[in-house]
Amino acid sequence: MLFSSMTFIYVFLPIVCLLYLIVKKDLRNYVLLFASLIFYAWGEPNYLAIMILTIVVNYFGAIFLERYSQYKKIILFATVTTNLAFLIYFKYFNFLLDNINHLFKTNIDFIHVVMPIGISFYTFQAMSYIFDVYRGEVKPQRNFYKLALYISLFPQLIAGPILKYSDIEPQLDNRVHSFDNVSMGIKRFIIGLSKKMLIANVLGEVADKVFSQAPDTFSHLTAWLGVGSYMLQIYYDFSGYSDMAIGLGLIFGFKFMENFNYPYYAKSMTEAWHKWHISLSSWFKNYVFGFRWYSWLPNFVRKLGIWKILRRLNFKRSYVNVMVVFFLIGLWHGASWTFVLWGVWNGLFLVVENLTGLNKESNNRFVNILKHIYAQLVGLLGFVFFRSENLSYAIDYFKNMFGLLAIHDVKYTLSYYFDNLQIFIFILAFICCAPIFSKMLYIRKERWFLRGIVNAWLIILFVLSTAVIASSTYNPFIYFRF
């Protein structure tokens, strides 16, 4: 079920809110859990069992960590391996098989595995829980239904933010329900919905038109505008979903972490990654980069030869970890070498910035402008890898952008890709990447006139968004694929 659907907005959400309001306080978690399972089963009924099995594995894994503490490394290893086994099989089986066939010139043909929606997100949340229990930051959750709610909570189940268990655990029992929270939640939801329907989808049509053509069939300007449209689309699409998730969380008393903080306003790639998909980068920082991940390996694994190699690399661990993290971030986004190259591309620039000091603040305004241009250019070029179907297409696209590809036959003029509305939306989206409206929802009550204008504007956005939903068939969420 999509947040940006009439069924969700006008049927599912009102019913859930009504039930949540009328039941006793100690039953509200059960209402949310039941609603979350229906929400997931609505789109993926065949894969609901996989998510439930993930919950069961981590529920007992955490209890065993506490009960059999003398074997905690082995238990952690087994639990994490089981989580990753689900993820690898459903998300990467086809990718691995294709690479084996290509490498060994074979033609192995098994079943085509279909990836359950949201598996990357709820698997990482489950592993957050098991790591937090292993570290002693939280106690094992003895109430199976509360753990199930944490992993399956529908506002963020499909595309995040990825919630850290230690942040959510206190809120499972004690959370604040207030008119202000509900009001702010509705406003955040409308902002996210309008980002998605009025900006991301419009620019997505442009990007899809460009990237559906061979790179030698459109002009250099079209190539730049095509990837620029995709860069804006993915930001408004994903940050829009995060806004809706955070807003829904507030309606039910949960406070989720912010997932975006104007990343296209950054002056380095290091800063950009502090502002982009914050929950994912924080997850890798907590559990891969900043965590001595080799310390929980069982002794029999340490005795393997690879352990000695890893220890020798330890003196360069910070840079090695950066590249490992971004290799994994790229792979997390999709089972394709183009995603891996996108991750490596970002990791390389973070290492270079760290070595050269390019990620440090400057008091020179002109230097900051140049750094801002540099960061957005690097990000823009990286999204060519992200959007391309394969490496060959990405290389040809790069060649087109820099005038190194012979254009044989321009099928369509620029007006085919951009109509007047799309040009307007492109400019508006570009301007709104800066935090010029960041305080819009937080105007003090005393300034009632401005608050009234903002509320009226939000109502207009909501009406426009739902009108577009009712009349449009183009409504994908990019991160549902990941």
Kindly describe this structure:
The protein is mainly α. The protein has two domains: 6-177, no CATH class; 180-481, no CATH class. Helices cover 68% and strands 0% of the residues. It is built from 20 helices and no strands. The chain has helices at 6-22, 28-43, 48-67, 72-104, 119-135, 144-152, 165-173, 179-211, 220-251, 269-275, 278-289, 299-302, 305-312, 317-333, 337-356, 365-387, 391-401, 414-417, 420-431, 448-471. The longest helix is centred in the N-terminal third of the chain and has 33 residues, at 72-104. The relative contact order is 0.11. The model has no long low-confidence stretch (mean pLDDT 88).
**Approximately what portion of the residues adopt beta-strand conformation?**
under 5%
User: Helix amount, in percent?
Assistant: 55-70%
H/E series, N to C? HHHHHHHHHHHHHHHHHHHH
Number of helices: 20
Quote the average pLDDT.
88
Largest sheet features: none
State the domain count: 2
Straight-line distance between termini: 16 Å
Number of distinct beta strands: 0
Q: What would you call the shape?
A: globular
Uncertain regions spanning at least 5 consecutive residues: none
Q: Give the C-alpha Rg.
A: 23 Å
Structural class: mainly alpha
